[in-house]
Amino acid sequence: MIVVKQVMRSAMSVGANVVEAVNSSTRTEFKRYYEIALKSGNETKYWLCILRDGFDIKDDEIKEILKECDELTKILASSIIKLKSK
């Protein structure tokens, strides 16, 4: 299913960009990788909602993953705000 592949791609991008941020050489680069990770997290939420609503999947597992994804994007957004304020 194409939507599942999109969820996988966007979700893996979050982790990959956080790892890149940790290994970045400048604060600006670090912030930029977090911003990309946040965008990928938001995309992942979008695809999960498509799975939940568009395909009428009422699975508790998707709800839990969506909740965790939302928490992660809030953490990333908060980190970006702090990075921008310094």
The overall average pLDDT, rounded, is: 93
Number of helices: 3
Main pleated-sheet profile: none
- The 3D shape can be described as elongated
Distance between the termini: 43 Å
Structural class: mainly alpha
Helix proportion range: over 70%
What letter string, H or E per element, gives the SSE order?
HHH
What does this structure look like?
The N and C termini lie far apart (43 Å). This protein is elongated. The mean pLDDT is 93. It is mainly α and 86 residues long. The longest helix has 28 residues, at 27-54. The chain is built from three helices and no strands. Helices cover 87% and strands 0% of the residues. Helix 1 packs antiparallel against helix 2 (27-54). It has helices at 2-22, 27-54, 60-85.
Q: What is the compact description of this entry?
A:
The chain is built from three helices and no strands.
Strand-helix topology:
Elements: H1 2-22, H2 27-54, H3 60-85
State the main characteristics.
single chain, mainly alpha
